[in-house]
Amino acid sequence: MKSDLMDVAVLYQHRTLRAVCVRQTLDGEDLWFPRAQVEIYPADPLMRGEPITLTGPAALLKSKGIA
Questions:
Q1: For the chain, which residues make up each domain, given as ranges?
Q2: Which domain of life is it from (predicted)?
Q3: Which of 5, 20, 42, 54 is the residue whose CA sits 20 to 30 A from 48?
């Protein structure tokens, strides 16, 4: 069975208890993802603008235009 998870390189912006905000470029659009559906690496500590890896369902990432 093929996994539908994808890894994408993005820039960390912010997170709340339920969501994480990333951008593709420093001046790009804020993209919010539900934390229940994605993982970020590294997890801590994070600073705004830091490159991270976002892992999530391919369909979700494609719907936001980053896959």
A1: 5-63
A2: Bacteria
A3: 5
Which tokens is 3 given?
A: 């996994």
Number of H helices, E strands in the chain: 1, 5
DSSP 8-state assignment for residue 34: E
Q: How far, in Å, CA of 14 to CA of 23, rounded?
A: 10
The 10s digit of each residue's pLDDT in 16-40 is 999 999 999 999 999 999 999 999 9
Q: Which two tokens stand for residue 47?
A: 């600073």
Strands in 1-67 per DSSP E: 5-15, 19-23, 31-34, 39-41, 51-57
| Burial letters 8-32, b for 16+ CB under 10 A, else e | bebbbbebeeeebbbbeeeeeeebe
State the Cα–Cα distance between residues 19 and 4, nearest whole angstrom: 20
